[in-house]
Amino acid sequence: MTDTITTLQVLFRREDVMPRVLLHNVHDYKAGGLEFGEIITRLLDNLEDSSQVHIHHTEVPPLDTVALGFVTAQLALAECKLRKVIYGNAAPRRTSDKARKNNKDHGIKYARLDTGTEVINVNSPYAFGFLKSRIVEFRTIDSPDSGSQFRSRDFFPKRVAQLVNGDTSILTDELSIDDIPEIPNNIVTWTDGFGNIKTSMRKSDLASMGLEDGQKVQVILNDVSMLGVVSTGGFAVDRGMLAVNIGSSGYDNPFVELFLRVHHMGEKTAAVRFDYPEGGAEFELKAL
Fold first, then answer.
1. Which of 20, 177, 214, 270 has a CA 20 to 30 Å removed from the CA of 4?
2. CATH 3.50.50.60 is held by the domain 14-179
3. 8 A C-beta contact, residue 187 and residue 281
4. pTM above the 0.85 mark?
5. Which CATH architecture describes the domain 188-287?
6. What is the pLDDT of residues 188-232, one digit of tens each?
7. What pLDDT band is residue 155 in, cutting at 50, 70 and 90?
8. Reduced to 3 states, what is the DSSP secondary structure of residue 150?
9. Which residues, in sequence order, are bridge partners of residue 140?
10. Hey, where are the domains in the chain?
11. Strands (E), the chain
């Protein structure tokens, strides 16, 4: 038995059986659903050596480009020894209400960060905004932007795989980073599974507003007003109290969360109290 364990330990330490690339697959499709399955199939079919690539899937809410950008940044800026690539898509096609000839819409863009992480996102609003200050290369990818309703399966995975394979010949026009819209600091970005609402406001924004730990504030979101307390953490306040706290996302300058401490999911979370705000919903924060 000891010999068997030793053999397995040696086997799984071998560099040639360990993945070299972490590919985050971020889409507004249902996790585990058909769409994810079809996209994964196309990715694996076009990768030169799929055994070297670990694919991780993250679902964002349908048509929520703010969540796409927020999740992309959170995953992109995480420390990782592997080469890291992120492929994301949430394209609500809101730029016009008119019919789109041949399903035409924005294509995919490529960004390389100062960390070396590569991001391939459909160029929808907010897709690159949370990473703007970290981008060192911003390019167009040579890929059809029409001809299929399901471009994220039919066209984009092949280009993603090409880039993972090391083929940069599909990178075309250089784009201006300055053209990426800034992210306002008063919008909802993500609601987690516990009903906590993550926002685009940062710890530094609270400081610039002169707000300190323990100070009472008024939060207005979705036409709902609640009394809250500025806090260094959601559990630093009493049960049932809304904490406007320094959250778990955002790294060196964390994002602010609206955290309503509950002990059971049957209780009203922050998401419930604020009527389930969508990504991009604006909120107000007023000192009392």
1. 20
2. no
3. yes
4. yes
5. Beta Barrel (2.40)
6. 999 999 899 999 999 999 999 999 999 999 999 999 999 999 998
7. confident
8. coil
9. 109
10. 14-179, 188-287
11. 21-27, 53-59, 83-89, 108-113, 118-122, 135-141, 171-174, 188-191, 197-202, 216-221, 224-231, 242-246, 255-260, 283-287
